[in-house]
C-alpha cells in the first residue's frame, strides 16, 4: 500500500508537519504502507506557475502523480483566516479532475487556538467531499495547547484506525459492485420475445405500450 501525506506547513520546524508525521506513523503501523510526504512549501513556485501556464514542473508533476496513485491520503494544513491556506487549496486546484474519486482521505489541521477547530467540518470536509474522496469520520485538529496535553494522541490513533480500515476496504477486490446490485434489484423483467431475439443476434424493438404493461405487472 502507498500512503501519501500532503503537508502545507510553512515554517521549520512546523507543527503541521509534526501532526502529519504522527498521523502517518500511526496509519503505517496498522497497514504497513509505504509513506511519502509531499511538502507544499517546496512546491509553492511550481504551483503558482501551473495556475498561470497550465503545465506542472517536474517536482509538482511527481507530487501530483504520487497523490493520484496513493491508496490513502493524509492532508494537513495550517489555519489561515479561519480556513485552509491558499497554498493548500491551490495544490488541489491543479490536481486532475476525479483524481481523488473514491480515495480514502484523512483530514487534519493546526492552529493557534481551539476556536478554529471547526475548520475541519466547515472547510476541509466539504472540499474533499466535492472532490469525491472518501473522508474518514474523524478529523484531527491540533491547537498550540494540545501538544503535550491529553486527548491529541487518542484522536490521532482513532483517525489512523479509521483511515487504515478505509484503505483495506477500498483495496479489497469487490465481488459485485454495489451499484450493479442495486440496479439489478429494481430492473423490470425483460419480455421473453425480446430476450430470445437478442440471443439470436437480432435487434428487436419493443413497443412502448408493451414496456409500460411489463412495468405495471412487475410493480
Concise structural overview:
By secondary structure, the protein is α/β, with parallel strands linked by helices. It contains 9 helices and 7 strands; from the N terminus they run E-H-E-H-H-E-E-H-E-H-E-E-H-H-H-H.
Write up what this structure looks like.
With 219 residues, the chain is an alpha/beta fold. Helices cover 49% and strands 17% of the residues. It has helices spanning 15-31, 44-53, 58-69, 86-93, 119-130, 152-171, 178-186, 192-199, 208-218, and strands at residues 2-7, 34-39, 72-80, 83-84, 104-111, 134-135, 140-143. Helix 1 crosses helix 6 (152-171) and helix 2 packs across helix 4. The two termini are 46 Å apart.
Q: How do the helices and strands follow one another from N- to C-terminus?
A: EHEHHEEHEHEEHHHH
The total of beta strands comes to 7
The biggest sheet, with number of strands, parallel, antiparallel or mixed sense and barrel status, is:
7 strands, mixed
Distance between the termini: 46 Å
Mean pLDDT: 86
Helix content: 40-55%
Secondary-structure-based class equals alpha/beta
- Which strand-content bin applies to the residues? 15-25%
The total count of helices amounts to 9
The backbone outline, from C-alpha atoms, is: globular
The whole-angstrom Rg is 23 Å
User: Low-confidence parts, pLDDT < 50 over ≥5 residues?
Assistant: 175-197
